[in-house]
Amino acid sequence: MDERRALRTPRQKYGEELRLRRTAARLTQEELGEQVVCSPTLISHFEAGRRLPKPDDAQRIDRALGTDGFFARWLEDLESKYADHFAAVAELEQLAVLIQQFALSLVPGVLQTDDYARALFSAYRPNYTTEELDELVVIRTERRRILDAKPVVWTLLDEAVLRRCVGGPQVMAEQLHRVADMAESGRLRMHVVPYGVGAHALMQSLLTLMAFEDSAPVAYVEGFQTGNLMDDPALVSACQTAYSLALSDALSQQESLALVRAAAEEHAHGHH
Predict the structure, then answer these.
(1) What are the residues whose beta carbons fall under 8 Å from the beta carbon of 103, sequence distance 6 or more?
(2) Most CB within 10 Å of its CB: which of 65, 72, 158, 252?
(3) Do 29 and 105 reside in the same domain of the chain?
(4) Which Gene3D superfamilies match (predicted)?
């Protein structure tokens, strides 16, 4: 059997070190939690690499363990530009050799044009400044660099992604042409699940699958202000099966390209 080691993200290494130092200091998670003024559950999240301590928590951890500012200093390198639930995913994306994404209602982040991303970010926020939007768009643009690392990328789009007009007809047309151009140049494999198939295996959720050179695959699903990164083999396998089922209902790459180009033209010329 393929016993591949689990891939450890920088925050998991941080958590592992915290667990080692805590055990060396002969403290339970409860006892450390008391000194850091947080719950034992939060300590277990830190140790599993699911969460990072806040700077003042890290300072209290250093005091409790006598680690002389070690955890506070290391934390500065780990603080992510991304939301908590996405930070580990952003790290893993850069290491993946295969990324398979399914999008239910909007173009996946790494494929978004700046204008499309800006329109999304402004829709998410009740009041925003131009500077805030600029910053968010730059962060998203940086994420596109993972495509330079040349992972194999599959993008499966529900037809709804092509039809919802984000940012106006021109922005939408440019966005769809960008995705089609990337597929045509061989940079990604792209398929569309058309409305005509009705119910399909992924209609409840967007999904990203990632595979790595020498470690076990992961799956990630995301909802409003939350995300779930799965490495449990049974769950990952169920996600892979659902992806394969949805893919089997999709149009061929050529038909998908034609549909995306046609949708782009319809947006550009105002036919919906």
Answers:
(1) 155, 156, 157, 158, 161, 206
(2) 158
(3) no
(4) lambda repressor-like DNA-binding domains
Q: Which residues lie below 8 Å from residue 49, measured CB to CB, with a gap of 6+?
A: 8, 9, 11, 12, 13, 14, 15, 16, 88
Q: Any residues with CB less than 8 A from the CB of 228 and at least 6 apart, and which? A: 85, 220, 221, 222
Structure tokens belonging to residue 175: 């966005």
Residues in the chain: 272
3 state DSSP class of 44:
helix
Residue 98 belongs to domain with CATH number: 3.30.870.10
Give the confidence band of 6 by pLDDT, cuts at 50, 70, 90.
low
Sequence letter at residue 37: V
Q: What is the pTM of this model?
A: 0.75
Give tens-digit pLDDT for 76-98. 887 777 777 787 788 888 889 99
Final residue of a structural domain among 52, 78, 104 = 78
Q: CB of 190 within 8 A of CB of 157?
A: yes
Instruction: Please tell me whether residues 110 and 69 are part of one structural domain.
Output: no
User: Average pLDDT for residues 4-10, to the nearest whole number?
Assistant: 66
Q: How many CA atoms within 13 Å lie on the side-chain side of 146?
A: 22
Angle at 69 between CA 68 and CA 73, to 5 degrees: 150
Bridge-based pairing of strands 206-211 and 189-193 is unpaired
